Input
Amino acid sequence: MAAIPGDPLAERLARDARRALEAQAGMHLAHRWMLVPLSLSLAVAAGAAASIRAPLLPLAGLPVLTAALTAAAQRLLRTGRFAEWQLRALVGSDALTLAAVAALLGPHGYLVAPLVVVGATQSTFLSPRVGRAFTLLALAAYPAARVAGAPPQWAPLAIEWTLLAGLCTVMHLWQAALVRRLQRARVALGRVEDGDLTVRVHDRHLDNVGLLAASLDRTVGALRALAGEVQAHAHAVAALAGQGAAAAREVEAAAGEIGAQAGSIA
Output
């Protein structure tokens, strides 16, 4: 979210978004480091399997490339120079890596399809824009990789790609909607922090995020009612104070009259 100059809420949300980006990037990089030895093990197993016969050297080189990119991104993150476009580029390299694995596996490239769906889901949870970039790139590269890896059978490949595209799209849209709902709740909380007690989230879904939004709406309603009561009590106290001041003036006037009468009698 871009900060609007002079808008404290927008500036605070932009700072929060920056911290969230750095935390999400750090988590993603940690996952990539865990996948490097696993990928190397799978590459060795695929190269040794007689039924797959995949080229060992290229398969082993992909995790090494992933490790190099991860190290470079981690250095940028430590020095505070990491940006969202770099996260998109990093996730895009994941999509291309999966496509390369699908090509190297030849007729067994379909084994990569579940990983593409998982990648679309996880990258969208990082950021809807990041997930959209991954999904589009992966869906474009996957069929080209399958064609490059083995002589294509067009009808099965079309069915395979259609199923993959449908699953990726559904998971991306579902996760993106979830992230947007969480962002709306965060913006509402920011407005409450600034003293706006008229805000409502209006989330009608009966899941955990919807229940969180309903609790937020009820809490803001209770605060609004409490503020109204405090304001009413303040008005009542002010009215009593006004009545007391008027009574004091009357007493003072009466005392003045009594004093004047006493002076005239004397």
User: Anything to note?
Assistant: The helical segments are 8-48, 56-78, 84-104, 113-126, 128-149, 154-193, 208-265. The chain has a mean pLDDT of 83.
